[in-house]
């Protein structure tokens, strides 16, 4: 069985870019292999310094996943910080990482450009991510396009370790990116991202959701004129929710004219409400019993730690890190 692994930062509310780009694949793949999914709370510290908020977000993300269909009997779900072997391996990998490799980090540059403080944690972020992946001997890492370079760096660092210590200590992983949803656009047409404030959140509802959908940016083609669906932010999002038949039907209305962006937005709003309706109900129910959520994280952490220790032990051994306890 292949080992599937992925992580998500608890740095705010999850959005439909996270869902279609990653979470949906995570949930589908729990049926296919041995799945490990975790909350990257150490990574979030690079942009969030509020303990109470981070703790709250950690529970929120767990509830989100459970409501969206994660089955803790099939997939191991846990918090990154419950596996100390990860930070241990990250340090060791860091000693083999050229500074120049980190300087090429696109995600680092993007985050600085978006206004985050250029701290060392942000700079070495990909090393911790490599450790996340390598510590479980992961085969496949389902992610969105923006994580591609981080997985490449992971392969690079695994190779450097294996070369330095002359053995197959770390397994070389592959990313799994679904082309049609590799970059889900936000309400302004750029990649949907919390740092651009252009998200539609998975569990937004009522007025809040409506306001967000209504503020999707469109061009100023008059209502009666024909419109090009392939060149519109509303249609780009409709495509995520509608089957082929429904997409064609709406595209036809665009091209015919007399169908305005306001109509398209209403249609999209209904689709979002239907699509996540069941998950929303489930989440509301689950939020009443947080003991279960804590149990899931505790059990998941235990399983992940055991697996991580199996990989870590020979690494300590070959690197000459002796345990004197
Ligand atoms: P994060 O928390 O930013 O995003 C979680 C997942 O959602 C995907 N994603 C998108 N996909 C398509 N279109 C979008 N607009 C979009 N926005 C987000 C991301 O690609 C990601 O798969 N560095 C990671 C967290 C991480 C991780 C790991 C992932 C830490 N360690 C190990 C995999 C393996 C991150 O910041 O994801």
From TrEMBL:
Subcellular location(s) per record: Cytoplasm
GO molecular function, one term: ATP binding
Keywords: Aminoacyl-tRNA synthetase, ATP-binding, Cytoplasm, Ligase, Nucleotide-binding, Protein biosynthesis
Binding-site residues for ATP, renumbered to this chain: 9-11, 17-18, 144-146, 184, 191-195
GO CC annotation: cytosol
Signal peptide: none
Residue numbers covered by motif 'HIGH' region: 10-18
Predominant location category: cytoplasm
EC number: 6.1.1.2
Membrane-crossing segments per the record: none
Assembly with partners or alone: Homodimer.
NCBIfam families for the chain: trpS
Stated name of the protein: Tryptophan--tRNA ligase
Organism: Gracilimonas mengyeensis
């Amino acid at each position: 069985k292949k080992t599937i692994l992925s992580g998500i930062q608890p740095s705010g509310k999850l959005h439909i870019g996270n869902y279609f780009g990653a979470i949906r694949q995570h949930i589908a793949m729990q049926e296919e292999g041995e799945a490990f999914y975790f909350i990257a709370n150490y990574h979030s510290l690079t942009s969030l310094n509020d303990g109470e908020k981070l703790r709250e977000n950690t529970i929120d993300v767990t509830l989100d996943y459970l409501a969206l269909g994660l089955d803790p009997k099939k997939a191991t779900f846990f918090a990154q910080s419950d596996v100390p072997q990860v930070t241990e391996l990250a340090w060791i990998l860091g000693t083999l990482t050229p500074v120049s490799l980190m300087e090429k980090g696109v995600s680092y540059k993007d985050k600085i450009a978006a206004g985050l403080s250029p701290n060392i944690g942000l700079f070495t972020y990909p090393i911790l991510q490599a450790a996340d992946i390598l510590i479980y001997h992961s085969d496949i890492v389902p992610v969105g396009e923006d994580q591609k370079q981080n997985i490449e760096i992971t392969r690079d660092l695994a190779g450097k370790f294996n070369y330095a210590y002359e053995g197959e200590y770390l397994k070389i992983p592959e990313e799994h990116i679904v082309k049609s949803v590799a970059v889900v656009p936000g309400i302004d047409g750029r990649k949907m991202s919390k740092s651009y404030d252009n998200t539609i959140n998975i569990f937004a509802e009522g007025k809040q959701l409506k306001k967000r959908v209504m503020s999707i940016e469109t061009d100023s083609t008059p209502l009666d004129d024909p419109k090009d669906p392939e060149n519109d932010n509303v249609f780009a999002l409709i495509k995520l929710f509608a089957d082929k038949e429904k997409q064609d039907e709406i595209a036809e209305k665009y091209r015919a004219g007399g169908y305005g962006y306001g109509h398209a937005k209403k249609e999209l709003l209904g689709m979002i409400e239907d699509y996540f309706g069941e998950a929303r109900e489930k989440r509301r129910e689950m939020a009443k019993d947080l003991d279960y959520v804590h149990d899931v994280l505790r059990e998941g952490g235990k399983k992940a730690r055991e697996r991580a220790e199996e990989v870590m032990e020979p690494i300590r051994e070959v690197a000459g890190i002796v345990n004197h306890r």
